[in-house]
Amino acid sequence: xxxxxxxxxxxxxxxxxxxxxxxxxxxxxxxxxxxxxxxxxxxxxxxxxxxxxxxxxxxxxxxxxxxxxxxxxxxxxxxxxxxxxxxxxxxxxxxxxxxxxxxxxxxxxxxxxxxxxxxxxxxxxxxxxxxxxxxxxxxxxxxxxxxxxxxxxxxxxxxxxxxxxxxxxxxxxxxxxxxxxxxxxxxxxxxxxxxxxxxxxxxxxxxxxxxxxxxxxxxxxxxxxxxxxxxxxxxxxxxxxxxxxxxxxxxxxxxxxxxxxxxxxxxxxxxxxxxxxxxxxxxxxxxxxxxxxxxxxxxxxxxxxxxxxxxxxxxxxxxxxxxxxxxxxxxxxxxxxxxxxxxxxxxxxxxxxxxx
Length: 356
Ligand code: PMP
Prior knowledge:
Blueprint: E1 26-27, H1 39-50, H2 64-74, E2 81-84, H3 86-98, E3 105-108, H4 115-121, E4 126-129, E5 148-152, H5 164-172, E6 179-182, E7 203-208, E8 221-224, H6 227-238, H7 247-258, H8 260-283, E9 286-288, E10 295-300, H9 305-314, E11 317-318, E12 320-321, E13 331-334, H10 338-355
Parallel strand pairs: 1-11, 3-4, 3-5, 5-6, 6-7
Antiparallel strand pairs: 2-8, 7-8, 9-10, 10-13, 12-13
Helix pairs in contact: 1-7, 2-7, 3-6
The structure holds 4'-deoxy-4'-aminopyridoxal-5'-phosphate.
């Protein structure tokens, strides 16, 4: 072993879902939006193409146009908004900024699998709190002493939504630490906890353009909280990388957030497809947590998830499978277009029938 090897910061990295090169895949494995971004995004891209000189300069480090557009959308002040390179970047910055205690941070045992990776990377002690038998967060588990709390709402990969009153209970019981509510999927049927930032100083809401705004490829995420917390986040950001948001992301992100009608129409469409999917998947022998997100976390009454995952993949239908304790008999299936979902049901119907 070389002497320097012991100085390497070793981590077991997060493994993102597969991005296949083949174009003919029905891709239901990474919770992307099946619809393209707002037509306003195309216009913004064309404008950028006509003015390539914009790329000569550094982008606005304060990302003012995007921050202001997000603030306007939610009726908040720009000083209450922080933006980053996807919510992964925003969440990583939040971990670095706010989870700086000797006490363990708390998050669910079944949750977004990046949380423990950031905790390991930043050497933050953590403790997982088990979901109950129905795969729901038990709010009382988060009342003990801790160094901070984070959970997604709806949770991932279960899709279960914690009612706003229970989110508030968790925040109210943790006023000595920061509580991060990761609302990556909130636009698909949940009520955001954003209003709580006026009543509690310790809450941060994190959202993303990757799901309900159809822009996973642009990498835009944001946090909303009171001015003091946003200032603290910006201080850490400027100590790490001033120019997180590139010029293209600023232009298209602003255009996307300004098109409220398109956002509302596409999210409503996904919600409708999801509700139909619940009926169809139940008929096919699946059961699942009642999802309020753009995916179903489903288990089949007779066919092991791993086998189904393999069969689907071979048929060119990609879903997500987590080979982890407690969830290794589940598939996380992103809600696609109606046509994509029909192809899924048709395949499953035939395959499950032929299997017996
Ligand atoms: N939070 C949760 C719960 C997620 O599932 C994801 C998607 N992988 C993210 C955050 C990160 O999304 P993004 O970085 O694309 O905004």
